[in-house]
Amino acid sequence: MPATPPPPPLLKVDGLTLAFGGVKALNGISFEVLPGTITSLIGPNGAGKTSVFNTLSGFYTPSAGTMAFDGQLLAGVSPPKRAALGMARSFQNIALFRGMTVLDNIKLGRHCHLKTGPLAALFYTPAARREEAELRAEIEERIIDFLEIDHIRKAPVAALSYGLQKRVELARALAMRPKLLLLDEPVAGMNREETEDMARFILEVRREWGVTVLMVEHDMGMVMDLSDHVVVLNFGQVIASGLPHEVQGNPEVVKAYLGAGNIEALRERFQQAATAGRQARQAA
């Protein structure tokens, strides 16, 4: 029996180049994200990871290369329209409205899908009321319950801990009904318990919601434990790509992280971090 061909990529990046003046932040990078997978984009500080996210989101315009999402080229597509297509993201630095409540922040994530026009919303017409009620029901019954934040839904974001704010940002992204979730350092600055909770949510978002994940993260234990595929950047170029265990043993990755080639030391460090993260999640 012939092998079943793999599905077409949900996201395909080909030859992406981004320059600021004479400095190339991205230099012809290419990679794919298959549907239903967790793909991690890793590399040392300054490797270009967040630049990739900002270009995918439409905040930066590349000087060369193409990006295709769900079969559609993204050139000329505005950030709001990319969100409407099914791309949602979180940010390395939390980007919530601190004076608003948790519930109101989450509801803002649905703006790209709302059918009510500005005038109908202003006068709160019956159609606007119905859409508001449906949106609130979905958020409260599905997203808030899923992320275990019902106890803070009426609290102002400014009063929350850093870890809970990160969870609210994930909730807002999920409110956008994404096909692809871009997570920029989702556990940065979190303690161990918060990190394990976020890792569990990411796995469940993929398994229960069917959302594909592209993640930038420095926690190598989490990356190696959760990822189906890993892409490694250094100085704006892809230096390795493959399964987590393949990337661990790549000499170019070792050199990028350590500056010299003690490949066994780095492999052992990655494996220890992954094992510790796995054991903590099982204990929870």
Which helices and strands appear, and what pairs or packs with what?
Blueprint: E1 11-20, E2 23-33, E3 38-42, H1 49-57, E4 64-69, E5 72-73, H2 79-85, E6 87-89, H3 102-107, H4 118-123, H5 126-146, H6 162-174, E7 180-184, H7 192-209, E8 212-216, H8 220-226, E9 229-234, E10 237-242, H9 244-248, H10 251-258, H11 263-283
Helix pairs in contact: 8-11
Low-pLDDT segments, ≥5 res: none
Radius of gyration: 20 Å
Task: Count the beta strands.
Answer: 10
Give the termini separation: 42 Å
> Average pLDDT across residues?
85
Name given to the CATH architecture of the largest domain: 3-Layer(aba) Sandwich
- CATH class call of the largest domain: Alpha Beta
User: What portion of the residues fall into strands of 2 or more residues?
Assistant: 15-25%
Structural class: alpha/beta
The general outline is: globular
CATH T-level topology of the largest domain: Rossmann fold
Let me know the CATH homologous superfamily of the largest domain.
Answer: P-loop containing nucleotide triphosphate hydrolases
One letter per element, helices H and strands E, the order comes to EEEHEEHEHHHHEHEHEEHHH
Biggest sheet descriptor: 6 strands, mixed
- Tell me the strand order in the biggest sheet: 6-7-8-3-9-10
Number of domains: 2
Helix content: 40-55%
Number of helices: 11
